[in-house]
Amino acid sequence: MDYHTRVLSKDEEFPSLEELTQQLGEHHPTYKLTVEDGVEEEWESLLLSGSDGSEVALIERNPVFDGSVGQDEIADFLEDIEDAKPESGAEWLRDYLASVKTIYSFQHLQAADTEEGGNALHALRAAIWERGDAIIQADLEGFTNEEGYHILWQFSDSVSGPWNMGVLQDETWYHFRMDLGDPAHRAAFLSGEMPSDLSVIRPAGPRD
Model confidence over 176-199: pLDDT tens digits? Predict the structure, then answer.
């Protein structure tokens, strides 16, 4: 089964191939981007690969408009979170998805599982996300807010380990690092509360 992570942006404008290549080359010079579909000025999909030919990820740019693939993806997301918890996070996400203009879909290929390939993929995804007005979605994990903290429970019931989470209360995000396998932590998060034995990582201001 293909594994994808995505950046969902409110911005119609997209980074050029030159911009992404420059940012990738600053820290991962042995990796490159090539156009798979479209042209350099109007790329539709890019291949991230190593100098040895190893393929790391296929990046697709899907604008969201009536009848588009991007619109279908948004509809699928809305269906997936229909009964998601906590309710405050799900409500915020539904409003956010209505404003998404571009989806960048990263299909993880074989070399994404290597340390160097994974780091290059992460850097490229971060470069797009950090342009602003964007959230991240990952298969089997779920969605973040704009600060990069997970806001819904879409993990498997058997998951465990530390994870950065966020709950929305009175229009303010509270961020913390919880143990996904701790029943008390899990119950608090699902009810839209921060676990009582944890501290806020950093306060965040109100969000639209």
Answer: 999 999 999 999 999 999 999 999
